Amino acid sequence: MAGASMKDIKLRIKSVESTMQITKAMQLVATSKLRRAKERMENSKPYAHISQAAIRSAVNRCTEGNIPFVSVRPVKKRCYVVIAGDRGLAGGYNANVFKAVAAHCENTDYCVLPMGRKAIEKIHRSNVESLTDEYAKVEGMTVGGCYKLARLLIDSYLQEQFDELWLVYTGFQSMMSQEVAVEQLLPVPKPTEEEASAPVSTVYELNVEELLEKVMPDFLAGRIYSALCDSFASEVASRRSAMDSATKNAGEMISDLRLKYNRARQGAITQEITEIVAGAEE
């Protein structure tokens, strides 16, 4: 009985060791990707911030109430650009994004433009309307691809396929902290008092409506690209943290199993000695 128990424990140790090798390898891969992902994220932010400030400044100068990208209309349907991961095994990274969408949409009818394979799979399982399934890969997404996506969103918005456009992504705070953000893109929100009073050096040669029509695709493309870079860095950091925890847990499990194995082995040896002594006495 003890021998069979020892064999089972030994097989279990080998199984956990194999899993530990996989999680350790995935942790190393995530670590190697994280530096490049952070650099890409930091490089994407300046343009997004500048274009956002310019758009907010232009919106602040709006005096007419019928400009398509600014005027608020009754919300019959929303569209969410949902950025999730290309793969799993990243802790709660993907699940937190989907929870944020579910909490925000409430009882409003909505459609989704999913980005990342996990987002597409989730939308299909939920039977939610999807604008397109073209963007199944977040890693390596280019600004050109985001511009094409922005044109699709703008055309759909102008055709009144939806009345509001929201962006849901995971913002990178630090190696250990990533937070889901839900941001309104269209109609462009009015700037706060602080933003409106901030000095702006931008000179506009066109009227506001013409200006917004020309720069909105660039603004949306830059904002979505920046969010993609943030999300990918968050995904890699989350996966690295998850695999680090899994590796440590596997190490602790192996230590416990080896302790059980040694106890079982000691019990088997003790039993054999007892049987030998008992046989000698007879």
Q: Can you describe what's shown?
A:
The chain has 282 residues and is of the alpha/beta class. The protein is 63% helix and 12% strand. The chain has a four-stranded mixed beta sheet with strand order 2-1-3-4. Helix 1 (2-60) packs antiparallel against helix 6 and helix 4 packs across helix 6 (208-281). It is elongated. The two termini are 24 Å apart.
Task: Show the helix and strand layout.
Layout: H1 2-60, E1 78-83, H2 93-105, E2 110-115, H3 117-126, H4 143-158, E3 164-174, E4 177-186, H5 193-197, H6 208-281
Parallel strand pairs: 1-2, 1-3
Antiparallel strand pairs: 3-4
Helix pairs in contact: 1-6, 4-6
Please identify the structural class as seen in this structure: alpha/beta
Rg, Å, rounded: 28 Å
Largest sheet: 4 strands, mixed
Strand order of the largest sheet: 2-1-3-4
**Strand residues, percent:** 5-15%
Shape: elongated
Weakly predicted, low-confidence segments: none
Quick summary:
By secondary structure, the chain is α/β, with parallel strands linked by helices.
List keywords for this structure.
282 residues, 4 strands, alpha/beta
